[in-house]
Amino acid sequence: VKVYPNPANNRVSFSEEIELATLINQKGVEIKSVQNDKQMELDDVPPGFYFIRMRTKEGEQVFTKLVVFRP
Question: Which among 9, 23, 29, 48 is least buried, having the fewest CB atoms inside 10 angstroms?
């Protein structure tokens, strides 16, 4: 699963529909989640470094880093 753009500003997209995607901060706190979607809105997320934990429709777990910035 690809996550783009990275760094991201207002939204991040996934290369395929994700069953569940959770944005996690550096302290391990879950910030927000989306279900059965191909994107996540980031308007309410402060700039910084995050992790995204994703579960695909096939049940595969994927983790990736994400940078949120505000120009």
Answer: 29
